[in-house]
Structures are given as C-alpha cells and as structure tokens.
Amino acid sequence: MARTDKNTKEKQEEADALKIELIAIKKERIFQNEEKSKRAAELVITKKERVFQKEEKKKRAAELVIVNKELAFQNEEKTKRTAELEIANKELAFQNEEKTKRTAELEIANRQLIDFCNIVSHNLRAPLVNIAMLVDCMQESKDGDERKDLLEKTKLVTNHLNEVFNELVESVQIKQDTEIRSDKIILKDCLDSILIGFVSEIEAYEADIQINFNDVHEIYCPRKYIKSIFTNLISNTLKYKSPDRKPVVKIKVEKINGNIILSVADNGLGIDLIKHRNNLFKIRKTFHKHPDAKGFGLFLVKTQVETMGGKIWVTSTPNKGSTFFVEFKTQNR
To answer: Under CATH, which number does the domain 183-328 receive?
Structure first.
C-alpha cells in the first residue's frame, strides 16, 4: 500500500513537473509569438519608414530640380539685367557724348554769331555813316557841281557797301552749307584750269610756278571750294610779290596720316605774324598796301576749309615769303 502511494506521488510529481514544463513551453511560445509579432510590427514600421524616406527623397529631388530651375532662371535674369545695364550705360555714354558735341557745336555757333555780329557792325558802320554824311551834305549844298561830286562819292560808297554785304552773305551761306557734296577732283586738271586765269600775270612777272603732287592725284571735296582755295592762295602769291625778285611759287600736295595737305609757298613780301596773327583770317583785314587788297580772300578760304572739317595755318617771315598750309580731312565719296 505504501509502495503504491509512493508511485502515485511520483507520478503526480512527474505530472506536475510536466505541467510546469508545458506551461513554461507555452509561455515561451507565447513570448516568441509576441516577439515575432513585435518583429513583424517593427518590420512593417521599418518598411513604412523606408517608403516614407523614399518619398521624402523623391520630394527633395523634385524640390532640388525646382530650386535648380529657379537658380537657372535667376542667372538668366541676372545675365539679361547685366546686358540691359550694359546697353543702358552705352546709351547714356552715347547721349552724354552727343550732349557734349551739341554743347561744343552751340558754343562754336555762338562764337560765330558773335563774330559775325562784330563783322557786320565793324564793316557796315563806316559805309553807312559815310552815306548819311554825304546825304546831309547834298541836302545842304546849293552848288550843282558840288552836289554832282557828292552824288558820285555816294555812289562809290554805296557800291562798296553792296560789295561788303555780298561778301558777308557768301560767308554765311558757306557756314550754313552743312550738306556739301564732295566731287572727285583730279588735282592736275583743276590746277591747270586755274593757272590759265593767271597766265598774263605769270608771264609779266616771270613767275616760276613749281608743282609737286607727290603721287596724290585726286581729292574728294566740293569743286567750288577747291577752286576758290587754289585761286585765292595763288592770287596772293602774285599780288604780294616782292619788288626785289622774281616770284617763285611752290605748290605741293602730300598725304599724311590719311589726310591731304596742300601747301602754297612764295618768296614775296611775307607777313609779320607777331603783329597780325590774330587778324590774319578775319574779313576786311589787309597787311600790305595794294589797290586790289580787299581782306576777303583768306577769310573765305578759312571759312570753306573749316566747313569741310579741315584746317588752315601759315608760316611767314617779312620780306622773305609765306607758306599757307591747308589740311583736307578724309572726304566721303
């Protein structure tokens, strides 16, 4: 009986141990299942996180594309603005240059206007005063012969006044002639035709005319201007020749730095430049006593040369001669 109870107790203990073991196994399985569930949940979360990160990466990539496009657009706009600013600056610089040119032109025009007013005042006043005095004398005179003499004098003064007036009008027309047309001038032909007009004087004075074109055969400028320049400069070489020697006239043309330089040199009376330099090219200014001296030729030449954009100057020594230089700027054909 005791042995049976002992076996039963052992069996009961084994059964209890087995139950405990089964319970432990069951708990272990539950724990493992819970861990599996946790792992599965974590994997789901991890997967969602990865999907989220991928979506975020895609968003960042899309945003970077937009940012890059925006930067590219801004760079293009900056380039456009820079180009526009450069154009604006160039336009402003051009406008400033034009204003400077206009200002300079206005200053020149004002000086010319003042000079012209002074010329008119100076050169017309004397003849008008003389005419007024002669008219007064005629009104007061009772003698027929005296009145006739006064009338002749009035006629002479009136003719002189008309001559001065015509010269002034011609000078104004030249200064206003901004659309001067340039002609192709064959220098030899032009000069030959002008020298024909001085044949009698050249022969009478036994003048030696020396011409050197230095391979410059043609020039582009208004025909009437070049003829006037040649005529006046050659005329002066013969008009103001020295009484002590035969006149020698050297006419030279050469090209320097793209411009044509004409020089007309003589061995005549010369000019005292220290005394007359400021009046040399002014109207009605003469520097030698000569019945044909009017003081208009050099004024006319200077006006024509400057109208073409050139310049004129002179070197001279009294009793030895003068050399007039004319620079012709490159002319438009």
So the answer is: 3.30.565.10
Question: Which residues have a Cβ under 8 Å from the Cβ of 91 and sit 6 or more positions away?
Answer: none
220: nearest Cα among 176, 256, 192, 180: 180
Query: Given 1.10.287.130, 2.60.40.420, 1.10.10.10, 3.40.50.300, which CATH number is that of 1-176?
Result: 1.10.287.130
Give the whole-angstrom CA distance, residue 4 versus residue 10: 10
pTM over 0.85, yes/no? no
53-84 per-position pLDDT tens digit: 998 899 999 998 998 999 999 999 999 999 99
Q: How many CB atoms lie within 10 A of CB 220?
A: 16
pLDDT number for residue 13: 80
What's the whole-number mean pLDDT along residues 17-43?
Answer: 86
Query: In whole angstroms, what is the distance from residue 73 CA to residue 20 CA?
Result: 77
The band of 131, judged by pLDDT with boundaries at 50, 70 and 90, is confident
Residue boundaries of the structural domains of the chain? 1-176, 183-328
Owner of token pair 């002066």: 236
Of 298, 326, 313, 155, whose CA–CA distance to 237 is shortest?
A: 298
DSSP 277: G
**Residue entry with tokens 């005179």:** 141
The pair of three-digit structure tokens given for residue 76, joined into one six-digit string: 């293009």
Q: Give the amino acid at 14.
A: E
